[in-house]
Hints:
globular, 3 helices, 7 strands
Amino acid sequence: MPTEIRIVRDPIALDDLRSLARDQFGDMVKAVVDVHQGIMAIGGELHADEESELLDQGSRQSDLWGINLYPDATGAERIEFDSMINVRPGQGNRSRSVEDASHRERIGDIVASLVRE
């Protein structure tokens, strides 16, 4: 049974991410972060599903970046900047990673503000 995609606007507990990870991928949660609005979508089987949900709610595609969250990791190891939705040659991003350091920093700040230890 697919998990419902949640739009995270207010902080969630790290334990909630751990539970979601166990229910889906074992040790990881897929997420899409809107770097303009400072929100993220979690719970989708694919980053594209989360991206679609955010687009339906008014996000701009150019503001959306796919990541993987590892709730049991700490520091920089918690976020993996890897998703097919990140391949955007028109925006200068030619790989699955988030190549722009300022985008990676903004994503890290958003995740830190939305995930409570």
